[in-house]
Amino acid sequence: MSSTKRGAFVVIEGLDKSGKSTQASLLHDRLQDSQDAGDTAPPKVVLLKFPDRTTAIGKMIDAYLRSESDLDDHAIHLLFSANRWELASTITAYLTQGTTVLADRYAFSGIAFTARKGLSYEWCRAPEVGLPAPDLTLFLNISPEVAAARGGYGLERYEREDVQTDVRRVFDKIGRAMQEEGEGKWVEIDAGKNKEEVAEDLWRAVEPLVTGIHGPINRLWE
Ligand code: NYM
Ligand code: MG
């Protein structure tokens, strides 16, 4: 049997203000330091963020989130998904060359934030089918009240406690479905703890994957 390993694909999900971006960046640095690979390419780890607001599609998403534009709920959903698809081959290439890929949000945010508007779960999931599947999804679990108390929400669309409460319900449904369908590991992390403790819990979940993974890159819900 070949001993060739590929990189692991790790996704961090959660509500707004759950500490995702802080933790993703801490985890990125820790992964970077975890193995001594010298300065040689390929990189050991890359951190991606969805939405990626730097692309042409990402700029449309950014304008929508800042309420500079209005879009039909279906149309913006498909843009968020397209924003992942435009990076799908990049993700696959990184994993194949042995780089660990960390993503701050992914398809699960896509489903959760649109399904709460009343569009069906199946319709929301459909455009995500076939994307590179994470090997591990870390859901930073925080109650919307605690999140709101953390210095308050910003001014973007969805940054309201009632919206977050609905979104969290859909995330719970996704987590249960992922576990039942065996679609890669979904791990809940208590994000109400302090920053250092949360970082430690995340590290415990990720460390076994640091040395890479045997087997093909899976595709979401395929
Ligand atoms: N969001 C994010 C979606 O509605 N659909 C998606 O597919 C993704 C990836 O965008 N409130 C929402 C969740 C956030 C908002 O994300 C901006 P961030 O991580 O705050 O930049
Ligand atoms: Mg935000």
TrEMBL record:
InterPro entries: P-loop_NTPase (IPR027417), Thymidylate_kin-like_dom (IPR039430), Thymidylate_kinase (IPR018094). Its EC number is 2.7.4.9. This is Thymidylate kinase. SUPFAM superfamilies: P-loop containing nucleoside triphosphate hydrolases (SSF52540). It comes from Rhizopogon vinicolor AM-OR11-026. GO terms for biological process: dTDP biosynthetic process; dTTP biosynthetic process; dUDP biosynthetic process. Residues 12-201 form the Thymidylate kinase-like domain. One of its GO terms (molecular function) is ATP binding. Belongs to the thymidylate kinase family. The keyword Transcription regulation does not apply. One of its GO terms (cellular component) is nucleus. Coiled coil: none annotated. The keyword Nucleotide-binding applies.
